[in-house]
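Continuing the batch. This is chain 6 of the set; chains 1 through 5 are on the previous pages. Same settings as before, nothing changed between runs. Recording input and output for traceability.
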Amino acid sequence: MRGRTGTGAGMLKKLSANLGNFLLSLSDAIDLVSSSIALHQLRTAFVAWQIGKAAKLPEDRIERIFIAAVLHDIGALSPEDKIRLHNFEERDLEAHCIRGELLFELTPLLRPSARIVRFHHRPWKTWDANIDAPYVFESQVLLLSDLLERLLKRNHYILNQVDELSSGITSIAGSDIHPDVVDLFLEISKREDFWLDLTSPRLYSLLLHFGPFRQVEINLEGISSLALFFQRIIDFRSPFTATHSTGVAACAALLSRIFGLTETEVVLMEMAGNFHDLGKLAVPNSILYKPGKLTKEEFAVIKQHTYFTYMVLNSIGGLDQITEWAAFHHERLDGTGYPFHVSADTISTGSRIMAVADIFTALSEDRPYRKGMERDKIEKILTSQADRNFQDKRIVNLLLENYDEILIKVQRKQAVSRDYYEKQLTSFKNRSSDLN
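Output for chain 6:
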């Protein structure tokens, strides 16, 4: 688990990951926050995939629907938002669809599915378009799939719910969902294996081995774009953290280069910085952005985030070094960090750099409970951490020796993220809702 992989010449060209595994792992991470929504997006993707197959769609259209479905709630930025959506408590269904489209459009691998996400809560009766128009059929498939999963009673045996669920979907044919899409669902709903697969604890494995993208590998460019995509999902939950991972990634990359790591390692470090807080998707906003001091119980919830970062990235495969550097940023050299309690003999240079970059960035940022700190206070805290054998003195000294240069470059990167967050993601009310 804590080994170090090689970083010689040509490693970047060889770096690859299975796209299906990547999508499923990240989708699963988004739904970690509560057992009430666990596997929601995976199950929705399974239903959409089955309907696409029943419709005998070309593989590329099935893939577009699947990508949209497996990440369809990405625009619901907080865990609380996701739970309200799942429980039919959210009245504004439009906002997360628009944010989802905006985020999909930023990533080449996801961009073809952006419009499907945009319209996945739009009832059929409100469409002024033919079912065969671009994105209409796909959006209707996703609407049905999402609705069906949310109607499931998780504590009841699935085959005893089939009649009720099928009747519920049939009752909205022609109003919320096009009759052709409902008919396709009813066709597959006759099969017990459909329902048993849908609720199986092995659904992840089923989709991984038999679903779309099971044989598709992505290279460095694809991995980097998805890392950047999830950096935005992680950070854009709050204006206070809207640029945090951007800052950590920039700082870690700069420190790596100054320290003398290879250019390959610098690139990997930046990706690890983008992923480092991935596990915070499982932490409620009420804890993450609490203005006062956390209780012991609340801090215990915070501690799970690096564990989930590790588990999610490790499950993707092929990202060993990125996984370690991203997940070990709260470990300490004396072994008192969390969650693995590794110590100096097993904490690599990259992990040490990431830890210092995270502390520096967090201290320099505004938070709900304080303003960003000035240099003298940041220097005092970092020096104390090094003196107590929490952080590596070499890395801390390197940062302090290059403080002004690093701060300027980090803030420049953060300004770009903040500009997008403020001008695009949170200011979309006038965005067109038509197909053009």
